[in-house]
Amino acid sequence: MTPHLSFRLILGDDIALGPGKVRLLEAIRETGSISAAGRSMNMSYKRAWHLVNTMNRCFSSSLVEASKGGAHGGGAVLTPLADEVISLYRRLESRARKAAEADMAKLSQHLAHSDPDA
User: Fold this and answer.
1) What angle do CA 99, 102, 106 make, to 5 degrees?
2) Which helix (H) or strand (E) holds 24?
3) Of 9, 40, 78, 111, which has the fewest CB atoms closer than 10 Å, so is most exposed?
4) Does some domain include residue 113?
C-alpha cells in the first residue's frame, strides 16, 4: 500500500471540490451524462446528482448544465468554468504533491506495512 495525499476544497460545511468530484466532472465531460458518469464510477444517479448540485452551489456559477431527459434523452455539459476549475485543481494537486514529496517519503517510513512479514 502506498500512501498518497488527497486535496479537498472546503467551503463552510460543504466539500466544494475534491478528487472524486473532479473525476465525476471529467466523466461527465466524457459521457455527456450525469447518470452515465455516475455509473462509470459505480455511483448511483442520486449520489452523482447530489455531488453536482453541491459543486454548482459552491461556485460562483454552475459547473454542470443538465437538460432533462425524455423522448430525445437528456444530457449534461461542463461549463467553461468547470474546465478551468478542473485544470486549476489538477495543477494544484501536482504542485502540492511535488512540494510534499520529501516529507511524504520520510513520513511513509513510519507507517505500518500491510504485509505482516515486512
Assistant:
1) 140
2) helix 19-31
3) 111
4) no
All cell numbers assigned to 20:
472524486
Q: Is residue 97 part of a domain?
A: yes
Amino acid at residue number 109: Q
Q: pLDDT tens, 36-75?
A: 999 999 999 999 999 999 999 999 999 999 887 655 667 8
Supply the range of the domain harboring residue 14.
9-67+74-108
pLDDT (tens digit per residue) in 28-41: 999 999 999 999 99
Instruction: Of 74, 89, 106, 68, give the one whose Cα is nearest residue 25.
Output: 89
Does residue 1 belong to any structural domain of this protein?
Answer: no
